[in-house]
Amino acid sequence: MVTLMDEVREKKQEIRNEIAAFFDALDDEVLAANTTIIENRLFEFANFLESKIVMLYVNAENEVGTQNIVKRAFEYSKIVVLPAFDPARSTMKLMKVDNPDKDLTMGPRGILEPNPAKCKTVPLDCIDIAIVPGIAMDEKGGRIGSGDGYYDRIIPDLPMTTRKVGLVFEGQLVPQVPMESHDKHVDIIITEKRVIYKI
């Protein structure tokens, strides 16, 4: 018997496949140019400029690249916090990174993350703004991630005042993300064409 939940998961997987095809078809130059536009929009965004402690992410496949965003955040004197993942528990810890060239190590998901030997854990209630990755999003702030639920678990524990900002390309926007009860929304989405405030 196919349950509603199975249908939602199937639909999410279909969307992930569509987005993977979108990325495969993207010209490298267009990808680089649009990534830069999103990055510049973020650095013009008042909520970001006013915040001191910034939660960022190191991008996985089919997510907006953040290598430069992380570097630039230090130039803007931000305190940079990145997630370290624990796949066994499906949880993540937020850790303060002082030097992205020295403080990161390859994590269990095959992406760079803070090295616990060099980085200190940061309490969630200290985060001023949370930049959240997504494989797909809709204009209401619904998001589809990798499917492991890391961000869905952490978003509700962030303070109400912490802005949750999603970064995606226009091609990653879908008419409606199929949501499950544990799925969490972002407040604002930045694309290469616009800034979308949740309706």
From TrEMBL:
Keywords: ATP-binding, Ligase, Magnesium, Metal-binding, Nucleotide-binding. ATP binds at residues 12-16, 143-151. Its EC number is 6.3.3.2. Its cofactor is Mg(2+). InterPro entries: FTHF_cligase (IPR002698), FTHF_cligase-like_sf (IPR024185), NagB/RpiA_transferase-like (IPR037171). It catalyses: (6S)-5-formyl-5,6,7,8-tetrahydrofolate + ATP = (6R)-5,10-methenyltetrahydrofolate + ADP + phosphate. GO terms for biological process: folic acid-containing compound biosynthetic process; tetrahydrofolate interconversion. Substrate binds at residues 58, 63. GO terms for molecular function: 5-formyltetrahydrofolate cyclo-ligase activity; ATP binding; metal ion binding. The keyword Metal-binding applies. It comes from the Bacteria. Belongs to the 5-formyltetrahydrofolate cyclo-ligase family. This is 5-formyltetrahydrofolate cyclo-ligase. It comes from Desulfosarcina widdelii.
